[in-house]
Design a protein that fits this description.
Length: about 450
């Protein structure tokens, strides 16, 4: 592997670090957030500054390898053979402009830091449910959030980026300077160049109100219907997630939840209490637990239950054009089958609202999609993982009848490409923009195969 000598020489010029396969710590550094995915890159770099990034780009060109930017390792999908993974931890600037309603973040910043900085300001960020996901990876790949019915996808709120191109030029890019590139960055940003910082619109939310209602699994179908019926006329200020949870009977879980099933509806409103929703849910089923009242993104983040450390897992996602009675009944019948125990949670998100009216042109879109689903199969140490594959396939079969023609890139699972997110014309346009931006193919193809 001749490229190793080139990379070895290059790292002597770095202020940051570059680990190669024989180095101590390489195995830990190469792992993505999902530990079930095996990555075997040519190296793992943590550049200290823009100069380091330029050095890495030159080294990649000389060594005949590619650059794969992976801020926190979320969204990893392949082994990255022949690529140098670049982690952007050092690019951690965070500047909030409350008067303009914007935030400028380095590509190493995670959403938790932004949420914390905005706490109590009357502004919120179009952040995902996990505080440890990077702002850059989420936003550049679409990003569906608690506030997406109110503000659109994360990428819809992307105003500008600072990007290092393959020729070493670092510049600010916006819709005025390069509209084609900005269109591509809003959904396929990871394959266009190295984004070092982003400028993002904030969301005005002076009165955030939230509710979480928990029901027994037997009420799930009726509660889903109630939410589905309200979705038609729901204001864009209302955001609703549903979750069918079936805790596996494994010793790693506390006894009070081990082997239990329940159904939860979470609502977040930027315009005060969602009384119509709550009253409809109370009529649809027996509420076992209710928590409601004024809240904030910080409180939501703290109570999200999202893992804060890398964990193994598998899953399947689906974007649906409809959620009729037959689909609800079929999904719940599938859910109740004893052999489907590997699927711990099925997350169901209401779409529409601002998602139907994107404020900016971008590749990523959920226009025309009504529901976004994700089935989670955790991988517990010592528990066989093979049954999970059959359950994932079964889930995909159940929802296939109502599948929408496209989904959002952040909901792709390993093995899926951006072809799942756009029509042929959009994919062709992406490839043209990439060829112009990266004519030497120095950046890894990611989810857009060459």
């Amino acid at each position: 592997m001749a490229y190793l000598s080139v990379l070895d020489a290059a790292r002597r010029a770095l202020r940051g670090t570059l680990l190669l396969p024989e180095d101590q710590g390489f195995d830990d550094a190469r792992r993505p957030w999902n530990l079930a995915i095996e990555q075997r890159p040519a190296g793992v770099a943590v550049p200290a500054d823009l100069g380091d990034l330029r050095t890495l780009v030159r080294a990649a060109r000389d060594a005949g390898v590619t650059i794969a930017v992976q801020p926190t390792g979320h969204g990893a999908s392949g082994d990255l053979s022949g690529a140098v993974i670049v982690r952007m931890d050092a690019f951690d600037d965070l500047e909030v402009d409350l008067e303009a309603g914007t935030v400028r973040v380095g590509s190493g910043v995670r959403w938790g830091a932004v949420v914390e900085a905005l706490d109590g300001t009357g502004w919120v960020a179009p952040a995902g449910t996990s505080p440890v996901v990077s702002v850059a990876g989420y936003t550049l790949c679409g990003g569906h959030s608690w506030f997406s019915r109110t503000a659109g996808l994360g990428s819809d709120n992307l105003r500008a980026v600072w990007m290092l191109r393959s020729d070493g030029e670092h510049e600010r890019v916006d819709d005025d300077s390069d509209p084609d590139l900005m269109w591509a960055l809003r959904g396929a940003g990871g394959v266009m160049g190295i984004v070092t910082a982003l400028e993002i619109d904030l969301v005005a939310a002076p009165a955030v109100w939230g509710a979480e209602l928990t029901f027994g699994a037997g009420d799930a179908a009726a509660v889903m219907r109630a939410v589905r019926d309200l979705a038609v006329d729901a204001p864009s200020s209302l955001n609703v997630f549903m979750n069918s949870m079936r805790m596996p009977d494994v010793p790693q879980l506390p006894e009070e939840i081990r082997g239990r099933s329940f159904f939860t509806v979470q609502a977040l409103s930027t315009n005060g209490p969602a009384e119509l929703l709550v009253s409809a849910l109370v009529r649809a089923g027996t509420v076992q637990r209710e928590v409601s009242g004024p809240t904030s993104p910080r409180l939501i983040s703290e109570s999200s239950g999202e893992p804060t450390d890398p964990t193994p897992g598998r899953g399947a996602s689906a974007a649906l054009s409809s959620l009729d009675d037959d689909m609800i009944d079929g999904l719940m019948r599938f859910r109740e089958q004893p052999e489907q125990w590997p699927i711990m949670g099925i997350d169901i998100r209401m779409l529409g609202g601002a998602l139907e009216r994107p404020r900016r042109a971008g590749f990523a879109t959920l226009r025309g999609v009504e529901w976004l689903l994700h089935a989670l199969v955790p991988v517990f140490p010592g528990v066989p993982s093979e049954p999970g594959g059959a359950s994932i396939a079964g889930f995909s079969d159940v929802v296939a009848r109502a599948a929408a023609p496209h989904t959002v890139p952040t909901f792709l699972v390993p093995g899926q490409t951006l072809e799942r997110c756009g029509q042929t014309a959009s994919i062709d346009r992406l490839r043209r923009v990439r060829t112009i931006t990266d004519p030497e193919a120095l950046f890894h193809e990611g989810r857009l195969p060459r």
